[in-house]
Design a protein that fits this description.
There is one protein chain. By secondary structure, the chain is mainly alpha-helical. It folds into two domains: about 50 residues; about 290 residues, FokI Restriction Endonuclease, Chain A, domain 1, CATH 3.90.241. Helices cover about 45% and strands about 5% of the residues. It contains 13 helices and seven strands. The chain has a three-stranded antiparallel beta sheet. A two-stranded antiparallel sheet has the order 2-3. A hairpin with a 2-residue loop joins strand 6 and strand 7. Helix 11 crosses helix 12. The protein is globular. The termini are far apart.
């Protein structure tokens, strides 16, 4: 699509400066990003209100016929706009990504070594990144993966600071903490944490062209065919992104990381489209019902579900990592709870967990 716009000399100079900075490949990309950012501001103002400070000595404003909006960040931590300004309207003419294929069919046996990697273990970052990708979606070309990973991970630092303040204010335990898995600014390892967040909770592509990360594991994003890695939300990813979240939408009386509607959505999506995760949940819930309800007993139980490997069998540490990651995700979905007595931990299946198993049994009967 080609649009002709009339701009004054000052705006042209500003536009050239943006392109020369190296962050944008050409005028079209710089203008597209500016429009997307402006749309975010309007959505935020319409949905949540708020004010923005425009200093009179801003060089972008001074001398311009039409003042440009300039946002001055405050010292107060808050949810960045990219995570909080959701919309239910898909941009006109935009196509969502196709649901990725799977090596397993729903209900199939999935060995522990083929479960989602245990270090991908928190769901609030999944929600945050999906919401950010929904905010960045402007057309059907998809979002360059490098840009999405860099921009979202950078904004996740500010979100991590906000969540850490909530953790401290509410004196949340480690099991309940919101900031876990998010990078924070006051850390010697901020750069490493930001890179880890980008790889685990936005996405990465290996030399074989395979997309990884928890968004991809859950089939909430897919790759766009082409030389440059680009990603798009799938229909499930879009629908999950636009659901209200008690943390990102700043509900003061929140009691969990995900809303009831988000949990219901993810459980149904996993049951229908993510066989590895579905099998992991059913296996662990069945194990708990049979008495394998401590880390040690559950690891022993899961060791029977590992693929045989000649020469280098999977180690107990790997099984523990897989178990810990699955339990953590199940906790976020309220399928299980951890009961702690001193250093001893016991896993207890919730009513939701029992219903999850019963629903699967009913489907296969």
């Amino acid at each position: 699509m080609i649009l002709c716009l009339e701009i004054d000399v000052r705006t042209k100079v500003n536009l050239e400066e943006l392109v020369q900075s190296g962050r944008y490949s050409d005028f079209s990309e710089a203008v597209s990003v500016a429009i997307a950012n402006q749309l975010l501001l309007h959505r935020h103002a319409r949905q949540q209100g708020g004010s923005f400070i425009v200093p009179t000595n801003d060089p972008l404003i001074e001398g311009s016929k039409k003042p440009l909006t300039s946002i001055v960040p405050t010292n107060e931590s808050t949810v960045p706009l990219i995570f909080s300004a959701a919309t239910t309207e898909l941009p006109e003419g935009t196509n969502l990504g196709a649901l990725p294929s799977d090596s397993f069919v729903p209900g199939a046996f999935v060995p522990v070594d083929r479960w989602i990697f245990g270090q991908h273990n928190k769901l609030l970052p999944v929600k945050a990144s999906a919401r950010a990708l929904a905010s960045m979606t402007i057309d059907s070309r998809g979002i360059p993966l490098a840009k999405a990973a860099s921009d979202i991970a950078s904004q996740a630092v500010q979100l991590g600071d906000y969540l850490r303040e909530l953790d401290d204010k509410r004196r949340l335990s480690r099991d309940e903490a919101l900031a876990i898995a998010f990078p924070i600014s006051q850390s010697d390892a901020t750069d490493k944490a930001r890179l880890r967040y980008a790889n685990q909770f936005v996405g990465a592509v290996n030399k074989q062209g395979q997309l990884s990360g928890l968004l991809a594991d859950f089939k909430l994003i897919s790759l766009v065919p082409g030389k440059e890695p680009r990603i798009r939300l799938t229909e499930a990813g879009w629908n999950f992104a636009i659901l209200e979240n008690p943390i990102l939408d700043r509900r003061p009386a929140f009691t969990s990381k995900l809303s009831e509607s988000e949990i219901r959505f993810l459980l149904e999506h996993i049951r229908s489209h993510v066989p590895a995760e579905d099998f992991a949940y059913r296996t662990i819930l069945n194990a708990c019902s049979e008495g394998a309800n401590t880390p040690e007993l559950l690891d022993e139980y899961l060791s029977k579900f590992v693929s045989p490997r000649q020469g280098s069998p999977f180690t107990p540490a790997f099984i523990s990592t897989q178990r810990s990651g699955a339990i953590s995700r199940m906790t976020d979905l309220r399928l299980v709870a951890r009961n702690r007595t001193g250093v001893k931990v016991t896993y207890v299946a919730s009513e939701t967990g029992g219903q999850y198993v019963d629903n699967n049994i009913a489907r296969t009967a």
